[in-house]
Every structure is written in structure tokens, then in C-alpha cells.
Amino acid sequence: MQSSRIAEKSTPYWWEAAPVQPLPEQPLAKQADVVIVGAGYAGLTAGLTLARAGRSVVVLDKMNPGEGASSRNGGITSGNIRLGYAELVRKYGEDHANAIEAEGKAAREFIYDFIRSEGLDCDFNLTGRFYGAIGKEQYETMARGAEKLQRTLGIESYAVPHAEQRQYLGTDYYRGGTVRMDIGGLHPAKYHAEILRITLAAGVTVHSNTAVKSITKDATGFRVETTAGTITGRQVLICTNGYADGADPWLRRRLVPVRSRIIATEELPPELMMKLMPRKMMCGESKVLGYYYRPSPDGKRILLGGRDASQSGDPAAPTVALRDGLINLFPELADVKISHSWFGNVAMHRDMLPRIFEHEGLTYATGFCGSGVVWAPWIGSRAAHKLLGDDQRKSAFDFRPMSSIPFYAGQPYFMPAFIQVYRLQDRIALARATR
């Protein structure tokens, strides 16, 4: 049984308004100041920053620009940091932990200013985000976290008790939740298309369907061998994230591509949308494998996403699971059709923090852990300033490479088992929660 029997289309909903397309073919230059591998949010933002500083830049992508996660994600500007504050302090010390948390706020502000100042037409709306608690214990912990966020970083954040929940979200599933108002939503494929537009206008050369085969160091910099020929660059920046391949086996041993799948409903009546999502907020929940969901930018559909344990093909089961999750939240949608179901790769790793680092002279901007809408442009721009020698804009995420994964060479054979364990943890937490 194929997912096409459950969803009408297996392509991203976002491609309806902003289809991903190849760029016109052009000869590969013999050399450039900087060669960037990956034409997603990070690679393009880095290229834009470098070009405006006077560098010649060539960006290479083995697919069409944006065909990976940049046009497949949920379009939520969460900028999550997967590790809690106590864990950050334990691993990196209090000063570094504080710098990491503060940079999350700076990264969102950067994105919002970037959209506004560059005039990016990407349906951005600073709606706020509701985060649901599965039990009363989780609610109390989340409420204290919201207070800390307001107190330490000045972010508008507050608790929503269960009695007031339906003012924010039309479900009784949660036992209250929290709201933070510095998170919004955008159209990710339009966002990428707009970044591509201004990057090309700045003089960056971007090549579609040009895979990198190898990178070797020489006397003048690096020789980058591709399917379209060889180019030399004084500097090379790698921004491949969840689509890193065997051309860089060292990186591949550190990044785990994990499928994230999203479904979109058919268009819903306005009165039903108002009932289910009265404030049109972005949404998430307090589970290890929690759903993330939102209204479409036009306010006519609900999009819901989560982790997908499949590793090949397009099986039906993950779409069925998401549809069941949607109905569990909103029983009113039991008979609603699913118009789209699609997936893309996010890049997870052992350290669970976005990262800028160097290895054998190459610079990397990668490891966004499912929050690339905010982190990829921010980390890409910081990496560009690193290449420019701008120490005033050094990032708190610029430190040692992430650790390699033992006995792993690119095929995440262990992920189905891990996801089953996480699901079990969620079931146990739900069973123990005071509902």
C-alpha cells in the first residue's frame, strides 16, 4: 500500500506556490575565492554575505537549489536548542551555556530583520507558538521555564492553564501549555526562493545538479572535483547538513539523516479553522517525538509533522501515523482528506547543537538538528564572517567538531530502533502523567 492512496500528492505542499526548479546551465568557473557546497538556507546566506564583502563565490548543489530540507520543512521559526540549560552548563560551562542561549534570541532577531530589510516575500507572520503539556507535571515545569525565559532573555513568554487552553488551540488533549511570542511561521519554499533571488543578484554563481566528488588541498587552496568539472577555491565552506554524502566520509560519520514527514489537510471551512486554531499560532508538544503543527499561511489547512522511522521508499505507515495523530488532537478532522504527505532529511548528531568548525582547512556550517529555518541562515552568515576574518561576529556555536558515531558510515540502520524506544518513552510518560 502506497502513501499516495492516503494522500493525494507525495510532493511538498510548499511546492504548489514555489516549485523547486533547476537553474540555467552555465560553465563551471576555473576558480573562485570561496566554493560553497550546498545551496540551502545556510549555503546561500553565506554566499550572499561573502559576495557583498567583495569575494567571488560559487555554490554547488547536487540537486536543485532548495530541493532538500529548505523547501520541505514546516516553516516554523523555532530555533530550538535541543539541550536544556542544565545540560549545557554541565557540558560547556556556565558562560558558554549563557552565550548559546542568548544567541538563540539573536538568531531569530537576525532572521526577522533579514526578511524585513531584504524585502523577502515569504508569508512571514510573527504569530507566537503554543507548546502543549501532556500532563499537569509537565505543565508546572514548562510554566517555570516560561518565567525564566521572560526574566533572563526578555522574551514574551507565559503559561496557559488548561481552563484557558481553547482560547489558543481547539483541543482538550493537553493539560495546559506555554506561549512564547518570538516564534512565527513562514512559507519555507518561498523563503528559499527569495534568498536565492537576492544571492544571485549579489553576483554569486549557483550551479544545480552539480555533485561534488572530492575535495583535495593544494598549494593555492582546494581543488573541488565535481560532475561538471574541477574548480579551485582559496576557501571551501560545507553546508550539506542532512544531505551530506560519501564525498565527505569524515562528515558523514558525524551527521545522521533522519526523516521528518509532514501531512497537509485539504482546505477546511473558515469556521472550523477558527475553532481549531483561533490565534493561528505555530504549535508543538512536550514529547520526545512530539508533533509540530500549524495553519498554512493562507489559513485554510492544517499541516502536521513528526519523525518518520522509514528509511527507503515512500511507505504508507508514516502517513497513517501522522493522520491518526492529527485526529487524536482534533477529532473533528476524522473525515477530512489528506492532500499532501512528504518527507525530508534533518541532520542529527551526538552533540545536538548547530555548529561551525574546521577540519583539515575546510570550514563547516551544519548540524541544525531539525531547526534550520532559524539556525541555517544564522550559522551560514556567521561562518561567512569567520572566512572573512571578522572576529567581532564569532558565534558561540563556533567550536570543536561534533563527535563521530562508532560503527556508523552514513546508513542510519539504528534509527528505527531508536524511534521505537522514544515512542515507548512517550507512552510511559503519558501513562504516568496526571491527566
Automatic annotation (TrEMBL):
Q: Which residues cross the membrane?
A: none
FAD dependent oxidoreductase domain span: 33-384
Question: Might you report a single GO cellular component term?
Answer: cytoplasm
Keyword Oxidoreductase listed: yes
Domain of life per record: Bacteria
Pfam families the record matches: DAO
What is a single molecular function from GO for this protein?
oxidoreductase activity
Q: Per UniProt, which keywords does this protein have? A: Oxidoreductase
Protein name as it appears in the record: Oxidoreductase
